[in-house]
Write a structure and sequence with these properties.
5-stranded antiparallel beta sheet, 253 residues, Creatine Amidinohydrolase, alpha+beta, 15 strands, 4-stranded antiparallel beta sheet, binds magnesium ion
Length: 253
């Protein structure tokens, strides 16, 4: 069941999301070669608690950290570790969220670690672009499949793969609500977009084949072929007019 949010609920979500948005903007300054993925998680936890909010992911389904930090061939749900040291040329996806007065925000970006290859820079860019291609269809009366289809088209036209096993979702009083938001699909299918729907849309893409497997830690998804992956996610609201992006400050970040 898709739960539509009231104006007040949306404003509460926007407060939660404002802290998430600010972290995403500051993270490029934080991420440097030589730091561990755990260092990123500690920075995120401190930031969230300093703002009087709760980390959305810590303890969720037993997840042990505040941020999912996924490096290179890791697609999502990387568990931060003191032993995983970032090196020049890596790409690192940071997925995080906050809870404020019972309402969730959820967003992700992939960041370069120092200087990265042109191909991986393009991968990161196409993940972001595909989100905005989908966003064009986030209008009342459209179908969710219109969004999914636009994302898939953009990613595949760039020669990259769309991850199938993980999808976006509704978000609000819970981190994961209906509907599921696949990053692939048929235009004209799926639920009708309605004002008050709050969605986390999150293309996950890779340079190779989209098949993934989960590591023995039961969380971290990696590409089967070892190709590198990028992730771009925002929490947004369907309105009477333009979609409202909650986890994005002015301009693209
Ligand atoms: Mg999400």
């Amino acid at each position: 069941m898709i739960v539509l949010k009231s104006k007040d609920e949306i404003e509460t979500m926007a407060k939660a999301a404002s802290v998430t948005a600010q972290m995403l903007v500051e993270l490029p300054e934080v991420i440097v070669p030589g730091m561990s993925t755990r260092d990123i998680d500690e920075w995120v936890e401190h930031y969230i608690r300093k703002h009087g909010m709760k980390p959305a992911f810590k303890g969720y389904g037993g997840f042990p950290a505040c941020a999912c930090v996924s490096v290179n061939e890791e697609v999502v749900h990387g568990i931060p570790s003191k032993r995983r040291i970032l090196r020049e040329g890596d790409i690192v996806s940071v997925d995080l969220g906050t809870i404020y007065e019972g309402y969730y925000s959820d967003a992700a970006r992939t960041y370069p670690v120092g200087k990265i290859s042109d191909e991986h820079a393009r991968l990161i860019r196409v993940a972001e672009e595909s989100f905005f291609e989908g966003l064009k269809y986030c209008r009342k009366g459209n179908r969710l499949g219109d969004v999914s289809h636009a994302i898939q088209q953009h990613v595949e036209a760039a020669g990259f793969g769309v991850i199938r096993d993980y999808v976006g979702h509704g978000v609000g009083r819970n981190l994961h609500e209906d509907p599921q938001v696949p990053n692939y699909g048929k235009a004209g299918h799926g639920p009708v977009l309605t004002p008050g729907m709050t969605l986390a849309i999150e293309p996950m893409i890779c340079t190779g084949n989209y098949d993934v497997r989960v590591l023995s830690n039961d969380w971290t998804a990696v590409t089967v072929d070892g190709s590198w992956a990028a992730h771009y996610e925002n929490t947004l609201v369907i309105t009477e007019d333009e979609p409202r992006l909650l986890t994005l400050l002015d301009g693209r970040q």
